[in-house]
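FORM 7B: Structural annotation worksheet

SECTION A. Query
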Amino acid sequence: MTTPLFALFVVGLVIGLPIAFVMGVAGALALAWEGKLSMLSVPQRVFDGINSFPLMAVPFFILAADLMTASGITSALLRFSQSVVGHIRGGMGHVNVLTSVMFAGISGSALADAAGPGAIEMRMMEKAGYERYYSAALSAATATIGPIIPPSIIMVIYALTDSRVTVAGLFLAGVLPGLLLGAALMAANHWISVRRGYGTAQPRLGWGERLASLARAAPILAMPAIIIGGILSGLFTPTEASAVAVFYALFVGLFVTRTLNARLIAKVLLQSGLVTSAALIIVSTASLFAWLLTLLQIPQTIAASIAQMTSDPLVVMLLVAGFVLVCGMFIDTLPAVIILVPVLGPLADQFGIPALQFAMAIVLNLTIGMITPPVGAVLFVMASVARLRLDRLTRAVLPLLAAELAVLVLVILVPALSTAVPAMFGYSR
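SECTION B. Predicted structure
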């Protein structure tokens, strides 16, 4: 069964089928080819893939992000970012990064960041004199902060796939790597701005104006604090936290920004439903594919192969990082998590690697894959939104990609970056 499974999977990717259909069709046809198991396993595994209470957090987090975006929060975040960093060299680029860091605490999705604030930030950078392709490349790179800083949809899926970690533990593990990712992109932007002569004509604002912009952004910035605070205090579970996020987003849109109305809410519900449907179809078919991999003992084979190469945990982490990075170039993040985590996760226990560090490295790695060709989903979104050539956009993102890979190496070399914050709150996994 192994040969037809992987052959069909590769053929599906090459001819450009949606990844959900690639995994579903490959799994079903390989099962039929083998003929030893009932085809009833296909609908059973597809249903089991989404028959999970914690998975309900995914549609709620998607809806909360869409509601906050429809509420007009981007302008408030941009004004606050400009008041803080807009006056320094490469200021509009720094505004781009800082806005994405703050929006990450709301969306949990790189694609949501790229299609929403990313498009606005790119246009603002162009007006400030930044080259068009660099503006789009920085917006694409900063969008990858979204799945790292909590809440994060990919972390919810990871925790469902690997019982060694919890959603709350992963959320906390993403705080330092997410901030470090923002700092690395700011450093890269500063270096590029100095070399290319990008500057800013915006004067330094006084503390009064900064505090005023902070006050306008405060209701928005409170959302991640409410989500994480509620989970850590035990008031609600991560799944319940996602529902609380939706109610809070409605409150902000109806009574704070006062931009939401019945017609706009209906539009947001439809949009969120479509995005959720696509995500859950991917999760369900990926579950079938992952079950077949386990049935064929692929995880054990890969683990044994790596164990034969080395007994050094650091070398194992680097080998896994290289393997996941290559996979991330061809497979979207959600199916990659469901397929790869059962394969690679046992290595953490086998080599004594902290489970949260291992998980964080994989999540960060796959997220970086969203701006790597040939299947860089965020690059496709930015190229489509701005009507840019993908090849030129890919070249423009390379120095920013190097900065993100440097953060990945740090996460691999320094376990405390992933484990220190969870340990402070009593989470070891």
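SECTION C. Observations
Residues 89 and 194 are 7 Å apart (CA to CA). The chain has a mean pLDDT of 83.

SECTION D. Sign-off
Analyst initials: ____
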